[in-house]
Amino acid sequence: MRTSSEQIPFRANAVQALDDPALRATLRNITEIFTQKRADAVSSLPFEEWRDQASALRLHVLDNLEDYIGRFAGNATRAGATIYRAKEAAAAREIVASILKDRGATKVVKSKSMVSEEIHLNDYLESQGIEAVETDLGEYINQLAREAPSHIIVPAIHKNRRQIGELFAEKLGADYTEDPTALTKIAREILRQEFLSAQAGITGANFAVAESGSIVLFTNEGNGRMVTTLPPLHIAVLSIEKVIPSLTDLPLFIRLLPRSATGQILTSYMSVITGTRKPGEFTGAQELHIVLVDNGRSRVLAGAYREMLKCIKCGACLNACPIYRVVGGHTYGATYPGPMGVVLTTLLDGMERAHPLLDATTLCGACAEVCPVKVPLVQLLRGLREERVEKGLTPWVERKGMIGFGWVAKWPLLFHLGQIAGRVFWPIAKRIAGDKILGRMPDFASRPFRRRIS
Amino acid sequence: MTRGEIIELFIQNAAKAGAEVQVVKDQEGLSRVALEILKGRGSIFCPNMTQREKALSLPADRCTQAYASASLCIEEVLGAVAETGSLVLSSQAGKPVQAGLLPGHHVAILPAEKIYQNLDDLFGQYGHSPPTNITLETGPSRTADIELTLTLGVHGPGRLSIIVV
Amino acid sequence: MRIQLFGTCLVDTFFPETGEATARLLRHFGVEVTYPPGQTCCGKPSDSGGYTKETRKAAEHFISVFEGDDPILIPSGSCASMVKNHYPELFKDDDRMREKAEAVAARTYELSQFLVHVLKAHEAGLAGKGRITYHASCQLTRELGVREEPLLLLRSVRGAEFVPLPDAERCCGFGGIFMAKLPEVSYAMAEEKADKIISTGADTVTGCDHGCLMNIADALRKRGSSIKVKHLAAVLAEGLR
């Protein structure tokens, strides 16, 4: 899906997605359900207050990020972990691969990590002869189908039960079934064997706690716990902005994240992992390696759009976005879809490649309304659009049209002449230009309002 | 909140999350309820570390030390949080936290006085050196990855029973 | 009381009847309606695309046309928000213009704001007809915070039945430049909105923004619906002649 400097063909992708009635019905369904669940979960709670607190805390961390990362690294090391800092995606991949190769690990189990998708870790490990088995059910399905995730929280939601049934029958040799319980059982049995025999486990982390050197994982399935407690070696890959100051800050985010993501009060499991197994303990990895990935974030932190890094990857903005709802995640052609995806991808991948994503918003503001940490998504999108214009990346016709608009708005005579010309040429223009844009608009009035008002 | 209100709130929230909760008054009640739950459930793992665990009088022929293959794990947990209806498990005191994760049914013995009112009370006690693993368990394992249909027991236990003592 | 009416470029060019209804409504309440000549467009089209230079041209012209102290009335949430929320920002590096922008912004009202807070029109027992549902446009609600006013007005209309629209605040897909850049996506969003409107059983859908209404009207028509699409001003002025 990803070619390094090709522009993301958002419109073409969208047209394809819109043509799939099953996908549209699924998207409509899940966004309605998640939106309703979130609304129910936040009612009669001081949610606005929590959002303000979380926003302020995240900003404080960003303002002191180097310091907090340093403290996290020191404390995690004290607890037995080995810390690595990877500036670029390639460095992060190589670090993970070399840790595994050093220990002769050829198969690892993985619990979902968006940043590991971002750096294309699985493909790289495969090229190095290491099999990474995804254990989150949705990611496992995607892995079998060799597809990318289409939603941060429910990554395989673009597939219906029939498609999953056929996939399992084909790839796993299972008897065909489309019953979700039966399909889940098939996956459970296969993956249980993988958990018990894996030489290593790779996870992401939802948060990193600076004062204790802990990482925090939220899962519903239990795979996060399996991956971090069964294999002797645990590698955690996370992006640098995930840090929060101390364990006493965790409750605020526990209150915000699951409710924003799925409307749950808490996910079934949440683990706080601090270093390696200590003497006298029977839980914990023997070896814990934590890879802190930058991949362009320091650059973003130093710039005008730094508030994007407050994001805690809950997916609420995806569920709220009226555009995501009709086109789905794959249309964005990037690791992260939806409103936060448009901004983060443009910032990390660069305007040249990602700028078509900036078309994918009406600036309606539904995303900013639900963001638990108050990322100012509308302002960020507006700013990026302005930058895109300054860089000359908008289509030539559009730029010329806008220059014309500027003159028409400034000179009433031009405005009036424009109306006269429009009355005459509009029907012809409509016929030439076709149905999609002009055809949707009404006809020019016979006499403009300004000539009717007395 | 009073202790009674905290316990009530915990029971409400744990049930909302899909756990089966019962309350007993003493060790005798505990053993009785536990044996009820254990009936016909196959092999049992119990860490046999705490007083309450040891006093359970479990049928010896069904007990196994291999928690990975047991059908059920019964253990006393460290505590709970009423605000979210969660159990608190941790690696301190040598407990194998994963023992409650692998079997299909997790039965948790929860001393009522160990229920924290809220998350702040829980996390306020650890300072900067928490045990290697602290896990909050809120209801059974679940997924909605397939068409948003709720399915229980994905990787972790599909059934969570809590006996408040 | 005297006001300055900004018709908006869409009303002037495509929907003059809304302008007429607005004037009729205001005059009914004894307001003197003046229409500063030479008005053009608030600049939202270029603003939505990120073209700040062109937007400033439009804003400077607007500010020069609307001199004075009278309240400025705009029958459009997006235009009113443009003036109130974005004009001062546009001139953040130009103190003189920014002050002028702030003064203009402070005098500007979206129509339903003025009708409710200044004229108390929702207590006037306006007459109307039909089974009406209401689309709550994005900048009107999320930028201007106008949510209750149109509802108060609609519910007060004698002879008309108000039916709430499910997901009334969800974007209809107009988005200014968006409709031209991603027309297929825009249309799909308009279809979703149209289906929700049809499901209410209303015979009329109303709103405060012609951009939205235009987009919705097209989708309704393509769905074969005969639901009427009318600006709030026209609905409220129905009983006035």
Protein architecture, described:
The complex is a heterotrimer of chains A (454), B (165) and C (241). Chain A is globular. Chain A has 3 domains: 1-44 and 304-393, Fumarate Reductase Iron-sulfur Protein, Chain B, domain 2 (Orthogonal Bundle); 63-295, 3-Layer(aba) Sandwich (Rossmann fold); 396-451, no CATH class. In chain A, the strands form 2 sheets. Chain A has a 6-stranded parallel β-sheet, sandwiched between helices. Chain A has helices at 10-18, 21-42, 47-63, 65-78, 89-102, 114-118, 121-127, 137-145, 161-172, 180-197, 223-229, 250-261, 297-301, 316-320, 324-327, 338-349, 351-354, 366-370, 377-390, 396-410, 412-433, and strands at 81-86, 107-110, 131-134, 200-203, 207-209, 214-219, 233-239, 243-244, 269-273, 287-293. In chain A, 51% of the residues lie in helices and 11% in strands. The longest helix of chain A has 22 residues, at 21-42. Chain B has 165 residues and is α/β, with parallel strands linked by helices. Chain B has one domain (3-164): 3-Layer(aba) Sandwich (Rossmann fold), CATH 3.40.50.10420. Helix content of chain B is 21%, strand content 25%. In chain B, strands 1-11-6-3-2 form a 5-stranded parallel β-sheet, with helices on both faces. The model of chain B has no long low-confidence stretch (mean pLDDT 93). Chain C has 241 residues and is α/β, with parallel strands linked by helices. Chain C folds into 2 domains: 2-116, no CATH class; 124-236, Rossmann fold (3-Layer(aba) Sandwich), CATH 3.40.50. Chain C contains 13 helices and 8 strands. Chain C has helices spanning 9-13, 16-28, 44-49, 52-65, 77-90, 95-107, 111-117, 138-143, 148-155, 177-181, 183-199, 210-222, 232-236; strands at residues 2-5, 32-34, 72-74, 108-110, 127-134, 158-162, 204-207, 228-231. A 4-stranded parallel β-sheet of chain C has the order 2-1-3-4, sandwiched between helices. Chain C is globular and about 50 Å long. Chains in contact: A-B, A-C. At the A-C interface, helix 1, helix 15, helix 18, helix 19 and helix 20 of A face helix 1, helix 2, helix 3, helix 4 and helix 8 of C.
